[in-house]
Amino acid sequence: MAALGCVPRVLSMESQAAARRFRPRSADLVFIDASHDADSVMANLEAWAPVLKAGGVLAGHDLSVRTPGVERAVEGFCAARGLSWSRGPARLWHLRV
Length: 97
Description:
single chain; about 25% strand
C-alpha cells in the first residue's frame, strides 16, 4: 500500500463502532472482513456506505458457498440502491457508491 502512496488505517474493533469514527464522505476505500451472516453483513454495508466519498469503493472478503449470507446481503444492499457489484478475484467482492 505504501508503494502506491496509500496509507491504510486498520481498526481492530467492532465494525459499526469503527464506522462511527469517520466523517461522512471521508474515505476512498473501505474493506470489510467481519461476520458472515446476512444481517451482520447488511449492517456493516449500511454503516460504512455513508463514510465513502462519491465513487468510493466498498469491498469485502469471504464470498463463498460456505458463507451465503455475504452474497445475499451484498446483492440486497445493491438492489435496494440501484448499485452493481463485482466478485473476485478469489473470494472478494466490491462495489462503487
